[in-house]
Known about the structure:
Elements: H1 8-35, H2 37-40, H3 45-81, H4 87-92, H5 95-107, E1 112-115, E2 126-129, E3 135-141, H6 149-162, E4 166-171, H7 177-183, E5 188-191, H8 193-199
Parallel strand pairs: 3-4, 4-5
Antiparallel strand pairs: 1-2, 2-3
Helix pairs in contact: 1-3, 6-7
Amino acid sequence: MHEDAISRDHLQRLTWIVSAATAFFVLWGVWRYGIAAAAAEAWPAWLLEMMGLFTGAGLLTLSLLWGLIFWQRRAAALSASGPRMSVAELYALSPRAFEHFVAELFERRGYAVEVRGRAGDLGVDLALTRADGRRAIVQCKRYRHQVGPDVVRELFGTMVHERAYHGFLVTTAEISDAARQWAADKPITLIDGAALAGLSDDLRA
Length: 205
């Protein structure tokens, strides 16, 4: 993932660490300026100065860390609530831009992606390779009209020809019930416009 913000797991870990450090700092403050306040009057000046520096540095550091945490959480909240690409916006992409858009979605899911979409591609717009070496293919259909079973049958034939373990049909259009039924018992994943618009949220990070 090409993200500027730190990951959710790292943010959670940082929050726990800073919370523990804050609790320790509060206990230190209660002891130094409450329980031990009277005894501190007899301490050497250099020790009091060191403790004052420690207290000031700790307060500044914790303030900066909490500021970072709140900034990161706000950034994550704004990202999560931001607008996704609509189906109309996806359809407005050029055919080549649409293929690269879909390619990035698969890259973010750990696939190695080869963009093939060009004349003579034999029905393969994207060739995918998983970490275990298994291959899959993707057909990108930037359509307005409903996709029927003939398109899915074509994809399946291409899978057999390419010896791919799985096939993906990614389209900006709706997919008919007949097409879904035809693909139901086959290693094919169908992603229609509405689903793709939801997945497009991945690219805003």
